[in-house]
Amino acid sequence: MQAGTRLGFILLLTPLLLWLTLLIIIPHIDMLLLSLRERVGVGQYATSPANYLTFFGEPLYLRTFMRTAVMSVLATVITLLIAFPVSFYIAKIAKGRAQSSLFLLCLVPFWVSELVRTFGWMILLRETGLISTLLQYLGLASGPVEMLYNDAAMMVGLVYTSMLFMVVPLVTTLESLDDAVIEAGYDLGGSGISVLREIIIPHATPGIVSGSIVVFMLSLGNYLTPTMLGGKDSLWFTELIYSQFIVRFNWELGAAFGFMLLILSSVIVWGMLRVTGQTLEKTMG
Amino acid sequence: MIPSMPQPRAYRLIYTGYIVLFFVYLGLPLAVVAVFAFNDSQFPSLPWEGFTWNWFFGDARPQIGAFHERPILRAIGTSAFVGLCVSALSLAVGTSNAFLFNRYQFRGRGLLYVLMLLPLVIPGIVLGISILVFSSTVANGAWDAVKWDITALRPGLVLVVLGQFSFITTIATLVIAARLQKFDRTLEEAALNLGADRLTAIRTITLPYLMPAMIGAFVVAFLMSFENFNTTLMLVGSDAPLTIAMFDRLKEGSTPLLNAVSLLLMLGSSCLALVMIAFQRKS
Amino acid sequence: MTPDLECSALTKRFDQSLAVDDVSFSVPPGSFFSILGPSGCGKTTIMRMIAGFLPPTSGDIRIKGKSVLDVPPNKRPVNMVFQHLALFPMMNIADNIGYGLRRKGMAKTEITRKVGEVLDRIGLPDIANRKVDELSGGQKQRVAIARCMVLEPDVLLLDEPLGALDLKLREHMKIELKALQAAFDTTFVYITHDQSEALVMSDQIAVMNAGRFEQIGTAQELYYRPDTAFVAGFVGDSNRWAGKVETVEGGTLALRTDGGLLMRATAHDRTLATGDRAEIFVRPEAIRLARSDADLAHFDNRLSGQVTSLLFNGAASRILVQSTQGGPEIEVTLPQSGEFSDVGRGDAVHIGWSGDQSNCFALDGAA
């Protein structure tokens, strides 16, 4: 490299390295170290896996962990199933103005904070809420119906919150599929189902994977929706982390929890990429 | 399937019905929040007690409007300040990253690119606690070593900005890199050929071309910062940004004041989004 | 014999515009039929109606004598080679070609055998496991045809499939397509805006303009005896003058061009009367070049003039001649015998042609 380009290279590389090392890599290493520390006396610490043993020894922690994982996967699958026909409609059926306005309409709810969206669902679903009142008015219920604070309400909220992140990559990949390829599928004797299975879905795989990764991550790491819409006895794993850090001030255990969450998300994301033969660069970049 | 395939009428009707339902599902919660901002009642729920502007402009108890509620106004100010800092920082670093990955081939480029993407797949709350842990380690170290208390490293706005910056930068990088990718480099060569030096060529040709993406990245970063909850929750100190302040209120029980603030948020972000779209259209 | 494909009074209306206007034609079995026309003339619309992707506004499409209007595209006995080929990028070549066979529920071993067979036939036996984007343009072309032919369709539709290829390869593929059509002995319907593709390959060509067929005929018929001024202007190059008919005697007529030249032409059974506004077309290769007027005595049209430019293009070289009697420059093909190899700008030359070689059409709206 010439001296000039070399200087440019270093100038451009420095912010990237500073950002990644100081805000991403070192903090996570530090968190790992903290999670491997056990308080043995006042101001006395020893390295031990005690925090992880606590995690695996306490059924509540483990159960919450598994529940969070399973529910997040479920939320991802539901979001995908709801979003796919909508994305297909926007990408392939709507034309011109209708297409761009429908797409924009999909984006609008996500320009406002998740808190506002959750608040909306609370107004709709709670005992004194709109749906309960409507049901009573229609004579379908005799008294107020509480629809908040259960898993179904939480799922509605999770799916709602993540919808955009599924619709956008799906619309983008589906739009890039040439109509002629779909027509060729029919022309060669394919039916709706076989064209969907052999042509449309394989083509949309990068979009499906990147959408699913983001939705899964957002569900797994969500704190607001489970806290506000979920039941009192159905904990979300992020709530455990929050309470260890902020309420109990047991940072060592909290860090161990954080690390478990990180491992869980990495394993599932890696698995998803592996199964579909995609790479992180291709799906997210 | 696509319109060039003949389909039964029933199928088309069901499909269209589904799309309509979907948009009702999307719009309903927001519509409800907006409507109840005008309910003349202490609760954002039925029965409807009549229309009022009090939740925006009221200045007497019990209906103090959003424009007279000091803590809310301060929280909006805090959020805006944090948002501007985060957008400016991530725009600068994002642009630099985009140029780095677009213009240079070097060993470890692939690895760095993957590392750059990682913040997208780390749960926000984990990002929050890892930065919290590390900054405390540094702050405690400084205190133990030289009895120097670095307040900036204790939970507070600086950490909130850093925490949000840590993942919003990835998004800014991707937005700008996508446009830089499409840039025809012969334009820069033409500028060099016409007598510009390298930096002038970038300043007069490449940056103007990137401008829509940079404005887009700035607005997206600002909105993401404004509505961020998870990372902020772990790093917040005494000055709460708006989402945290509203969360604390919502836990205590809601009044239409929250609806009014939410409606203002919706209007604000829609305006920003429209401005951004207008800019993108123009170029 | 029943034609393989028959369209009668086929019409397609989009909102206010008439894309295809009352088009009828039939294609006999095993022939190569082309629809030639400028872009936007409606040829793609016809093709998409035959394939089933667009319902006609009125008219009928019959394949082997049976109307297919109620048959959805995936059940029609026609297959289509798309403009950009539309090979499935998510599958390898064998799966692309086997796609239609799988839809028919054919057994796996049978599919493998058939795919192997057709790959042999297109001369690419070793590419079964390649990916689509690993093939060259010409290979993709052949795979796209094989993917259809393996289904043994009654009619194969080809939608400007050579458009994306570079010039050399396109020339080569023209010959290859014709050979493939003969080898498969299937009816091809080919649409293109490139006249040389249509002229070289087709048994029959329909020239289309603004939603209507101007003429259906063999390449020679279109070239030497165009039915309309549009065909004369669209197929091949011509010198073209507008003027007024001065005399009509039996089969010959004389026309005074607006530039003042008097030209004799054969009417070729076209109805033209004295005083009609008309347009006359003379092909550059129909005009003979000479050093002296005496060499041209047997032509009924003779002019002398000066060479204004030499357009050298190998075998297709031409000169532009400015007549001493005025009028626009006339394009004349340069003979390849070497006799005029030294001709240059400013040289005085004589040109002449037989009135039998020109085509004269009444000008619309002036008759």
From TrEMBL, chain A:
Main location (coarse class): membrane
Entry's transmembrane regions: 7-29, 69-90, 102-124, 152-171, 204-224, 253-273
Compartments, as annotated in UniProt: Cell membrane
An annotated GO BP: transmembrane transport
Topology with respect to the bilayer: Multi-pass membrane protein
Entry GO terms, CC: plasma membrane
Domain ABC transmembrane type-1: 65-272
InterPro entries given in the database record: MetI-like, MetI-like_sf
Keywords: Cell membrane, Membrane, Transmembrane, Transmembrane helix, Transport
UniProt cross-references to PROSITE patterns, sorted A to Z: ABC_TM1
Similarity annotation: Belongs to the binding-protein-dependent transport system permease family. CysTW subfamily.
Cited PANTHER family: INNER MEMBRANE ABC TRANSPORTER PERMEASE PROTEIN YDCU-RELATED (PTHR42929:SF1), INNER MEMBRANE ABC TRANSPORTER PERMEASE PROTEIN YDCU-RELATED-RELATED (PTHR42929)
Record-given protein name: Spermidine/putrescine transport system permease protein PotB
Protein source organism: Roseovarius gaetbuli
Lineage: Bacteria, Pseudomonadati, Pseudomonadota, Alphaproteobacteria, Rhodobacterales
Automatic annotation (TrEMBL), chain B:
Organism of this sequence: Roseovarius gaetbuli
Entry keyword annotation includes Transmembrane helix: yes
Database matches in PROSITE patterns: ABC_TM1
UniProt name for this protein: Inner membrane ABC transporter permease protein YdcV
Pfam families assigned to the protein according to its UniProt record, in alphabetical order: BPD_transp_1
Biological process terms in GO annotation: transmembrane transport
Domain of life: Bacteria
One cellular component term from this protein's GO annotations in UniProt: plasma membrane
Localization annotation: Cell membrane
Membrane spanning residue stretches: 12-38, 80-100, 112-136, 156-178, 207-226, 257-279
Lipid bilayer topology: Multi-pass membrane protein
Automatic annotation (TrEMBL), chain C:
Top-rank EC class of the record's enzyme: hydrolase
EC number: 3.6.3.31
InterPro entries xref list: AAA+_ATPase (IPR003593), ABC_SmlMolc_Importer (IPR050093), ABC_transporter-like_ATP-bd (IPR003439), ABC_transporter-like_CS (IPR017871), Mo/tungstate-bd_C_term_dom (IPR008995), P-loop_NTPase (IPR027417), Transp-assoc_OB_typ2 (IPR013611)
Domain of life: Bacteria
Keyword terms: ATP-binding, Hydrolase, Nucleotide-binding, Transport
PROSITE patterns associated with the record: ABC_TRANSPORTER_1, ABC_TRANSPORTER_2
Keyword Membrane in annotation: no
Statement: the UniProt record of this protein carries the keyword Cytoplasm: no
GO molecular function, one term: transmembrane transporter activity
Start and end residues of each ABC transporter domain: 5-235
Cellular-component GO terms for this entry: ATP-binding cassette (ABC) transporter complex
GO biological process: quaternary ammonium group transport
Alphabetical list of SMART domains matching this protein: AAA (SM00382)
Pfam families named in the record: ABC_tran, TOBE_2
The name this protein goes by in its record: Spermidine/putrescine import ATP-binding protein PotA
